[in-house]
Amino acid sequence: MANEVNPIKDLKDIRKMKAALAGRDRLMFVMGVSLGLRIGDLLTLKLGDLRGKEEIKLREQKTGKPRRIKLSKTVKNEVAKLDGRNNEYIFLSRQGGNKAISRVQAYRILNAAAERAGIAGKIGAVGTHTLRKTFGYQLYTQGHDITRIMAILNHSTPAMTLKYIGITRDEIDAAYDAIEV
């Protein structure tokens, strides 16, 4: 599939992406890989949705389902650094007014950062959905149960989630190689 993007699997590459971004753009990346939201939902957030909060509540644009997301310490620390009024979008467009950046602009930002970080060729295609897939993959590699990740991502089957987060045949084979009982 030509438009398919991949998760960032290596933590070193995640750090490289963070280093290749600054300000609003870095926050978009950090929130994307920390919350697992689709980019459309992420871009609609305003300062008041997060400032001083332990969690956010929203209705997913794609599914229409309500969603409650606990904010990580990393996200809360990043949000605490923000200036602005509660009714302002977090990811303000530089074109003026209280408008969020577009999905296309978010894609351009992430793609350019992947090039600067030197990871674009390594992981394949990078786009806005890379953030959500990275979130799921990192949860999985940290030992979280696939059915829990499936529920967080609103998937209908564990197989769909494994494919979505990019678990490859080589990784499955490596698990067999690692087991010694």
Overview of the structural elements:
The chain has 181 residues and is mainly alpha-helical. The protein is 54% helix and 6% strand. It contains eleven helices and two strands, in the order ααααββααααααα. It has helices at 11-19, 23-35, 39-43, 47-50, 73-80, 103-117, 120-123, 128-141, 146-153, 158-164, 169-178, and strands spanning 55-59, 66-70. The chain has a two-stranded antiparallel sheet with strand order 1-2. Helix 2 (23-35) crosses helix 8 and helix 9 (146-153) packs across helix 10 (158-164). The mean pLDDT is 90.
> How do the helices and strands follow one another from N- to C-terminus?
HHHHEEHHHHHHH
Helix content: 40-55%
How many individual β-strands?
A: 2
Helix/strand class: mainly alpha
Radius of gyration: 17 Å
Identify the quaternary structure here: single chain
Give the terminus-to-terminus CA distance. Answer: 39 Å
The residue ranges in which pLDDT falls below 50 over 5 or more consecutive positions are none
* Main beta sheet: 2 strands, antiparallel
Spatial sequence of strands, sheet with the most strands = 1-2
